[in-house]
């Protein structure tokens, strides 16, 4: 009896082990469905899931609130990986700014992706030609949890403003803000996002509007003082109503994970992307100019995950 029991216990264990080896689910935090993070996550999962028969990894990339929400979910162990702006990767790992007292020690960098200019779009009838003109206007500052909302707070601080300087500071998600601009619920919207993207295209084609330069002393100082910011430019002619280049500043979209995620899992994800790099770059126009050698270092401030280092070393990149 005892022997039988032991046997069935052993075979149950064996079954459980086989089942575990059959599937390991990984979740990638993205952003709003109209953004580029969603495409990053979906694209990575698409490539990872082509290899499921050999790797046993099954990848999903749900829509989320954005950078801060993704880092918090990784810190809590609710998600394995996620996309986050380079400024919030830095602050999370160093316990600064929004992450003061909430340092995410186990945050690990995997690679960076596209650049994300801090983008302001305004209705033409609101006559907003510079960031200063936003004072007293109705501005969608973005949903809490998003990178643009947190970076907007940094910008306001740097300018010595608060949200009280706006007639309205709404908290709509990226997917809602183009319509709000078109319906004249707000005068301007903010999005830190890769270009070109459908969301800004929607905003600029539904209502007469223009992109607003984000320049001046406060911005120069932010860029000079912080390695995770850089000057950025949105090319003229990319969106209706803005024929000339628009100067602003920006960050990098980065792909991050936790030290708790096993090396072989991160290795397989990185391998899926870089073994199929041309295919990956074809999945969104914002990925067209990505270069491997920049992606493994630019915008990364948390330590690289060992699983990523293993792949980059094998390829001779490190
Ligand atoms: N940069 C935004 C954020 O951190 C997301 C942009 C996107 O979804 O492409 O929330």
Task: Give structural notes.
It is built from 13 helices and 10 strands. It folds into 2 domains: 24-115 and 252-314, Periplasmic binding protein-like II (D-Maltodextrin-Binding Protein, domain 2, 3-Layer(aba) Sandwich), CATH 3.40.190; 116-251, Periplasmic binding protein-like II (D-Maltodextrin-Binding Protein, domain 2, 3-Layer(aba) Sandwich), CATH 3.40.190. Helix 7 (174-182) packs parallel to helix 8 (198-206) and helix 10 (263-274) crosses helix 13 (306-314). With 318 residues, the chain is of the alpha/beta class. Strands 1, 2, 3, 4, 5, 6, 7, 8, 9 and 10 form a 10-stranded mixed beta sheet that branches. Helices cover 40% and strands 20% of the residues. The protein has helices spanning 2-22, 37-50, 52-55, 67-75, 86-94, 147-159, 174-182, 198-206, 217-225, 263-274, 277-281, 292-295, 306-314, and strands at 24-29, 57-60, 81-85, 107-123, 138-140, 168-170, 188-192, 209-212, 230-234, 246-258.
In short:
This protein has 318 residues and is of the alpha/beta class. The chain has helices at residues 2-22, 37-50, 52-55, 67-75, 86-94, 147-159, 174-182, 198-206, 217-225, 263-274, 277-281, 292-295, 306-314; strands spanning 24-29, 57-60, 81-85, 107-123, 138-140, 168-170, 188-192, 209-212, 230-234, 246-258.
């Amino acid at each position: 009896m005892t022997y039988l029991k032991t046997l069935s216990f052993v075979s149950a264990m064996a079954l459980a082990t086989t089942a575990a080896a059959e599937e390991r689910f990984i979740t990638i935090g993205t952003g709003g469905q109209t953004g580029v993070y969603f495409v990053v996550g979906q694209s990575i999962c698409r490539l990872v899931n082509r290899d499921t028969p050999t790797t046993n990894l099954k990848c999903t990339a749900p829509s989320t609130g954005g950078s801060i929400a993704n880092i918090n979910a990784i810190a809590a162990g609710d998600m394995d990986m996620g996309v986050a702006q380079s400024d919030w990767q830095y602050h999370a790992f160093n316990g600064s700014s929004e992450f003061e007292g909430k340092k995410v020690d186990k945050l690990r960098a995997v690679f960076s992706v596209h650049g994300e200019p801090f983008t302001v779009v305004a209705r033409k009838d609101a006559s907003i030609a510079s960031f200063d003109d936003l004072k007293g206007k109705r501005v969608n500052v973005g949903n809490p949890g998003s990178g643009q909302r947190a970076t907007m707070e940094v910008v306001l601080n740097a300018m010595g403003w608060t949200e009280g300087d706006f007639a309205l500071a709404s908290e709509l998600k990226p997917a809602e803000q183009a319509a709000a601009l078109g319906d004249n619920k707000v005068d301007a919207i903010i999005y830190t996002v890769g270009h070109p993207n459908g969301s800004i295209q929607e905003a600029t084609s539904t209502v007469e509007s223009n992109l607003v330069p984000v320049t001046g002393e406060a911005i120069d100082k932010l860029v000079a003082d912080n390695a995770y910011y850089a000057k950025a430019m949105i090319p003229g002619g990319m969106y209706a109503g803005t024929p000339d280049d628009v100067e602003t500043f920006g960050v990098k979209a980065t792909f991050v994970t936790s030290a708790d995620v096993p090396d072989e899992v991160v290795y397989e994800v990185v391998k899926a992307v870089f073994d199929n790099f041309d295919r990956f770059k074809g999945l969104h126009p914002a990925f067209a100019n990505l270069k491997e050698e920049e992606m493994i270092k630019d915008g990364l401030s948390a330590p690289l995950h060992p699983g990523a280092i293993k792949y980059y070393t094998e390829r001779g990149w490190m």
